[in-house]
Specification:
The complex is a heterodimer.
Chain A: H1 5-10, H2 19-26, E1 29-34, E2 39-41, E3 49-55, E4 57-64, E5 68-76, E6 80-81, E7 95-98, E8 102-108, H3 109-118, H4 120-145
Chain B: H1 3-6, E1 12-23, E2 26-33, E3 47-52, E4 56-61, E5 72-77, H2 81-87, E6 94-101, E7 114-120, H3 124-136, E8 144-150, H4 159-166, E9 172-177, E10 180-181, E11 187-188, H5 191-194, E12 205-210, H6 213-225, E13 233-236, E14 252-253, E15 256-257, H7 258-261, E16 264-266, H8 267-275
Parallel strand pairs in B: 7-8, 7-12, 8-9, 9-11, 12-13
Antiparallel strand pairs in B: 1-2, 1-6, 2-5, 3-4, 3-6, 13-16, 14-15
Classes of the chains: A alpha+beta, B alpha/beta.
The structure holds flavin-adenine dinucleotide and FE2/S2 (inorganic) cluster.
Chain lengths: 150, 279
């Protein structure tokens, strides 16, 4: 079976992670492809995967009645999309759609979280990266809300 | 301009040759002297005072090609009485022009450097002459990158030119908007985030940044985080102006008169005033 560790190691979200931890994450990962226009997930779907984008572009969209989908963010190779650390089943608040052919690694959130509980060091490493990602998202959201170009 | 030999406050009459709508409230005007002649030389980043008879006078950056000074080009957004009146001018109408004023972008000091041009909203207008200058002398510079953001795709100015620039192999152009409807295949996100995608050697990079205050603050912060030296980051500042000549003090920012000492400043020189909220 093909090992995903080299692909995982190359993704900025996991950069610098111990090979032992990469191996554990690899057990929760699968390769996924989305063609242009295909949805990674849709609003209200259960958020079962955390995606690491390796190639392509993904539009994060909010669907508005009458106006249709509004693209609020573009994600591309090297970036991640998804939720971690939610105990209860969590549902997406938005749609994510491939703008062009997109290759990603899908991490199964449930099994990843179980492994983090068993190995707090892995949990801490992932938490640090996830917190950074959320902080960046938060800053972006504030800037967008503030209408920088006023 | 010859009028300056007599009275520097006296505007020269210019005529609108062409008026192009850029967005719902922004227009690009091409002007020529009513009396004929060749126009006047200017450097990228300089501005003129545009005077509408009976309404008032405002500073507006020159947005045309400095290698073609015979065409005086200004891009104006209608925000108040004077700018609205300028935007309302039609082909053949006249207005007064005096200038050029101000310290330009340091493009002449940039050969050998990678250059990042970063603009938000109408901030692309004051840096467009710098882009023309850099592209006309492309071999003299390292990597050239433009990062440009606006609220929505409909708010982007110079769209035709942006797509021409994107077609070049020697100029990387990143365009982003805050939100877009279906049909926009470009990037959605904020300008400071795109800096991570630009290729540059922080030790040998000059950044020209122009846009609204918030956008510039976050952009400069990101550039500093990426290792750019503060003295190599240039910002263009806006202040209300009256004389444009360093005489009236209307445009004062700390110890500087923006009309004479700027509008383009190295960030390390204006940092304290740039970050101050009250001024
Ligand atoms: C060096 C320099 C270069 C400039 N270059 C350009 C340019 O290339 N194109 C251009 O369109 N403008 C440019 N400006 C800004 C322009 O001078 C002002 O928009 C103009 O003075 C507004 O005058 P007004 O009489 O139309 O509006 P005012 O009556 O003075 O203002 C009306 C309203 O608009 C707001 N306002 C004023 N200025 C701005 C602004 N810049 N952006 C958003 N809201 C504003 C005011 O707070 C007020 O609420 C430049 C300013 C400077 C200092
Ligand atoms: S506008 Fe008069 S000193 Fe600057």
């Amino acid at each position: 079976m093909e090992t995903l560790e080299p692909v995982l190691a190359a993704h900025p979200f996991l950069q610098g992670l111990d090979p032992r931890h990469l191996k554990i994450i690899g057990e929760c990962a699968s390769k996924v492809n989305f063609s242009a226009g295909e949805f990674l997930f849709r609003e209200q779907d259960e958020a079962t995967n955390f995606y690491l984008i390796n190639h392509g572009r993904v539009a994060v969209e909010i669907f508005r009645a009458r106006r249709g989908p509004v693209n609020v963010q573009t994600l591309r190779e090297g970036e991640a999309v998804g939720w971690l650390w939610f105990g209860k089943p969590y549902h997406w608040h938005f749609d994510a759609r491939a703008v062009q052919l997109t290759r990603a690694l899908a991490l199964d959130v449930k099994s990843l979280m179980q492994r983090c509980d068993q190995d707090p060091q892995l949990g801490y490493e992932l938490m640090k990266r996830y917190a950074h990602m959320l902080a960046v998202q938060f800053r972006v959201a504030i800037l967008q809300l503030g209408d920088m170009y006023g | 301009m010859c009028s300056q030999l007599t009275d520097p406050m006296l505007p020269t009459p210019y005529q609108v040759l062409k008026r192009v709508r850029e967005t719902k409230d922004t227009f690009t005007l091409t002007l020529a002297p009513v009396k004929g002649g060749q126009g006047f030389p200017f450097a990228p980043g300089q501005f003129n005072m545009l005077y509408i008879f009976g309404v008032g006078e405002v500073p507006i950056s020159i947005s045309g090609d400095p290698d073609r000074p015979e065409k005086l080009v200004h891009t104006v957004r209608a925000v108040g009485a004077v700018s609205r009146a300028i935007c309302g001018l039609k082909k053949g109408d006249t207005l007064g022009v005096r200038g050029p004023y101000g310290v330009p972008w340091p493009v002449k000091a940039a050969p050998g450097y990678d250059v990042l041009v970063i603009a938000g909203g109408l901030g692309l207008a004051p840096v467009r002459p710098a882009v023309y200058h850099l592209l006309a002398r492309r071999p003299e510079y390292g990597n050239l990158e433009l990062i440009y953001g606006a609220r929505t795709p409909e708010d982007l100015v110079y769209r035709r030119e942006l797509s021409l620039w994107r077609g070049r192999f020697d100029f990387r152009v990143h365009v982003t908007v805050d939100a877009a409807r279906n049909g926009w295949r470009g990037n959605v996100g904020v300008v400071p985030n795109l800096i991570a995608r630009a290729r540059f050697d922080p030790e040998q990079t000059m950044a020209l940044v122009c846009g609204p205050g918030v956008m510039m603050r976050f952009t400069v912060q990101e550039l500093v985080n990426r290792g750019l030296k503060m003295e190599n980051i240039y910002v263009s500042l806006e202040r209300n102006m009256k004389c444009g000549l360093g005489l009236c003090g209307h445009c004062q920012l700390g110890p500087f008169f923006v009309c004479k000492d700027g509008p383009v400043f190295p960030y390390d020189r204006v940092r304290d005033w740039f970050l101050m909220r009250e001024v």
